[in-house]
Write a structure and sequence with these properties.
Layout lengths: L1 E3 L9 H11 L5 H22 L3 E2 L17 E11 L6 E13 L4 H15 L4 E2 L1 E4 L1 H6 L2 E2 L5 H17 L5 E5 L5 H9 L6 H11 L4 E5 L13 E5 L12 E7 L9 H8 L9 E5 L8 H15 L2
Parallel strand pairs: 1-12, 2-5, 4-7, 6-8, 8-9, 9-10, 10-11, 11-12
Antiparallel strand pairs: 3-4
Helix pairs in contact: 1-2, 2-3, 2-9, 5-7
Length: about 300
């Protein structure tokens, strides 16, 4: 069985971006911005239903990148500076860790409850998952001025995430963990401070005992294969390790390339995986923010066609 799914964020619509800009300069009230978020979420869910995407996120329209605004809710962290997100023309604001980490506030349950209400109205058959940055990726993308090592920092982030996801009104939580593929292999080559593979595996499996986890990796082949999760692998930049036999998500359409894939070739690419997997989730290979909005929706419609009826 092929299940089309969305990972991470949708490109922010221009109409919503204008509302956010108006709010930032004091020309729009907060309640009007909230209405805009909900209206655009509604539109997104309708389009996801029409595209045939069965597992969805809320589009992360409130998020500027995979770390913000979540890191603003964490005690011990300041937000400072713009950094390039891997080899992309895409930037994120870095967490600067200056003290012991703890969860200061958690608006995520409220946001998700709003999204769930909209989903039940316009797309009740879909599964909605929450999205958070994973502890390993957070550690690698932070400026660490407090903890002795990246291992310790990732453990501290895992504690914050564990507290946050306990309160979520959904059972499925997506952890954005590109570092499991991109950073772990790079750190090993450079012999720099790194999150050990053992620590990474332990932390993710610990979080999987709190909620069902969908662990999204991209920009390479994952160096850590946690048990009891859905592991999403970027087939454009990486591959599925031979020894992995758990639940599998395959990033088979290129979210960094506007050229459209051919459906028949994608179907051919999927066939070998059904020898070991009765169900496969098909997704973009990474965040859709790298694409123009119109192209992103065309790619999602292509994924929906792979799922059939």
């Amino acid at each position: 069985m092929i299940v089309p799914a969305l990972i991470g964020s949708l490109p922010r619509p221009v109409s919503l971006a204008k509302k956010i800009e108006q709010y930032s300069i004091g020309r729009l009230k907060e309640e009007d911005l909230e209405k805009a978020y909900l209206e655009h979420t509604r539109r997104a869910f309708i389009k996801l239903r029409e595209a045939g995407i069965r597992v969805i996120t809320d589009g992360l329209y409130r998020w500027d990148d995979i770390f913000n605004p979540f890191i603003r809710f964490i005690e011990g962290v300041e937000v400072n500076g713009l950094f390039k997100f891997y080899e992309n023309n895409f930037f994120y604001r870095s967490p600067v860790v200056r003290g012991e980490l703890s969860l200061r506030e958690n608006p995520l349950p409220e946001w998700l409850n709003q999204a769930l209400a909209i989903k039940e109205e316009v797309y009740p058959g879909a599964t909605l998952k929450a999205v958070l940055p994973g502890p390993v990726t957070l550690a690698y993308h932070s400026l660490n001025e407090y903890y002795k090592s990246l291992d310790e920092l990732s453990e501290a982030y895992a504690g914050v995430i564990e507290e946050a996801i306990k309160e979520l009104p959904v059972e499925l939580v997506e952890l954005q963990e590109p570092a499991l593929a991109a950073e772990l292999s790079r750190a090993t080559r450079e012999k720099s401070d790194e999150v050990s593979k053992e620590t990474a595996k332990t932390l993710i499996e610990r979080l999987s005992k709190v909620k069902e986890l969908w662990v999204v990796t991209y920009f390479g082949t994952p160096q850590v294969l946690p048990d009891n999760v859905i592991l999403n692998i970027d087939l454009i930049s990486g591959s599925v390790p031979e020894k992995y036999s758990g639940e599998l998500g395959l990033g088979i359409v290129d979210a960094r390339e506007t050229k459209m894939e051919r459906r028949d070739r994608l179907e051919d690419k999927l066939r070998p995986y059904f020898r070991r997997h009765s169900r496969i989730y098909v997704t973009p290979n990474t965040l859709l923010d790298f694409l123009p909005e119109s192209v992103a929706w065309r790619k999602l419609k292509l994924l929906g066609k792979l799922g059939g009826e």
